[in-house]
Amino acid sequence: MKKRVVVFLILLVLLTASIGVSCFFFLKYRNEKKEYKEYKDKQVELQKNNTDELKEKIKTDLENGVGTINTLRNVFDEDVVLYDSGKFKFIPINTSLKKNTINNDNLVTDDDGSISYVVNGENKGHKGIDVSKFQGDIDWEKVKAGGVEFAIIRVGYRGYGSGEIVEDEKAKQNLEGATKAGIKVGVYFYSQAITVEEGIEEADFVLKLIKDYDITYPVVFDTEPVSEGVSRMDDLTGDEISDIAVEFCKRIENKGYKPMIYANLRWFLLTLNCDKLEGYDKWFAGYDKTLYFPYEIKMWQYSETGYVDGIDTQVDLDICFSDYE
Predict the structure, then answer these.
(1) In what order do the strands lie in the sheet with 107-109?
(2) CB contact at 8 A, 223 and 245
(3) Model confidence over 78-132: pLDDT tens digits?
(4) Which is nearest to 311 in space by CA: 125, 219, 111, 177?
(5) Least crowded by CB within 10 Å, which of 10, 109, 111, 125?
(6) One-letter-per-residue 3-state SS of 173-223
(7) Which residues in the chain show pLDDT less than 70?
(8) Domain map (residue ranges) of the chain
(9) Rounded to whole angstroms, how far apart are CA atoms 32 and 297?
(10) Backbone CA torsion sign across 220, 226, 230, 234
């Protein structure tokens, strides 16, 4: 009889414990379910608020005339947004590359259309131009008096059809005139090389031409598509063009000059391999009101329709963010 009582009591304790555990987990589950529902409700509300804010931002930008492309760029700040061949393209920013640190808020457009880079009241940028034979005979003394600090002078190009290297007919005249006027000088070569060997040939041509001049600004490899017609580079891959650029730059650097690569947004991001070019300074061509380029640059060509005293034609305007000497 006592054994039955003991067994009964044990069963009762086990049953009570089981009920207690069940109640505990039930209450815990109910609380967790309630908390999860509250969490989901908050997420839905937050998402709705963010969506409303985003829609309002897009609406405001478009109503204020920001434009479709710039509105998208403001929204998708982790991508580079391009419009190419009738489509918008979203290119993820490569986080392994050095970033552009130029603050657009510090860019000031002066009365003459030139851009200064003013930080804490001090101009940190350098005013420049780039020229070729198309600017004709230049009065470099007037250019200097107009505040131009540096000039990047085309010394030659390779024909996009013939493949022949041609010296710019105003190259030596411009090098001598700019140097005499006290303007700091760099040079560029428009490349249509289709092999690494041709790229080295272009570098050697430049080195021979500039050896008697005081070149303190970069020696630039200008790579870009032809504006019309068929180019001898059309069948090259971006990697192949980048390899040519690198060999050109190596050749220039080995002779003690500062190499640089010039291109616009599409060419840099849709054609060239920026990983391969990371070790070299960049000269970016872009004619928006603000500087839009994700990676580190040293110079910005911000206008192709500028005017300066001493030049009768339109001229490219540049700002340099580095102190080249």
Answers:
(1) 107-109, 115-119, 122-123
(2) yes
(3) 999 999 889 999 999 999 999 999 999 999 999 889 999 999 999 999 999 999 9
(4) 177
(5) 111
(6) HHHHHHHHCCCEEEEEEECCCCCHHHHHHHHHHHHHHHCCCCCCCCEEEEC
(7) 1-50
(8) 99-320
(9) 53
(10) positive
